[in-house]
Design brief:
The protein has helices spanning 2-24, 36-43, 94-117, 125-146, 150-169. By secondary structure, it is mostly helical.
Length: 172
């Protein structure tokens, strides 16, 4: 048992060494590719004054941005999408969806009614901010209804209704 485990560990260790060694091995040039120095020697006639090469050239280390052998290439960026992604919401029956749509519309109407009761000229700056938030929630709730996202529409309409109710109840 111990011997089998030792053999497996040795095999794994050897395969990893081969991979690591390939990281440090000089890259092999493609067939037909010459180094510039070699091309220059072939193009010019031999002369007596040129000194012989004293040491072989060292291979340049791989560029920092170049991927190492054995590593996967980065994934391409996603293609641009013309349509928005589908909305993830709970699956409702047709009856539940219709009921939720009606409740969302009631909340939108109720929030608008509450806002009509508020004298906007007498609101403090924090109340003005709340008023803008209510109007933003109402706009988004209407957009959600058009987009058939009734759960989101109801949630936004409910928030708008509650904030509008608070604005209407505050002393002016």
């Amino acid at each position: 048992m111990k011997l089998a485990l030792l053999v497996v560990a040795a095999c794994l260790g050897l395969t990893a060494c081969a991979t690591i060694k390939s990281w440090f091995a000089p890259p092999t040039p493609p067939a037909g590719a010459e180094e510039p120095e070699e091309r220059a020697r072939r193009a010019s006639p031999p002369s007596v004054s040129s000194p012989p090469a004293s040491s072989p050239q060292r291979a340049a280390p791989p560029a920092l941005g170049a991927p190492r052998p054995g590593t996967p290439a980065p994934a391409p960026p996603p293609a641009p999408v013309d349509s928005p992604p589908p909305v993830l919401s709970p699956v409702l029956s047709a009856v539940d969806e219709q009921r939720l749509r009606a409740e969302a519309q009631q909340r939108i109407d109720g929030a608008e009614q509450r806002l009509r009761q508020v004298d906007q000229a007498k609101l403090a700056s924090s109340q003005q901010d709340s008023l803008q938030t209510v109007q933003s929630f109402l706009d988004k709730a209407r957009e959600a209804l058009v987009a058939q996202d009734v759960q989101r529409a109801f949630t936004l309409a409910d928030k708008a209704y509650l904030l509008a109710d608070e604005l209407a109840k505050r002393p002016r």
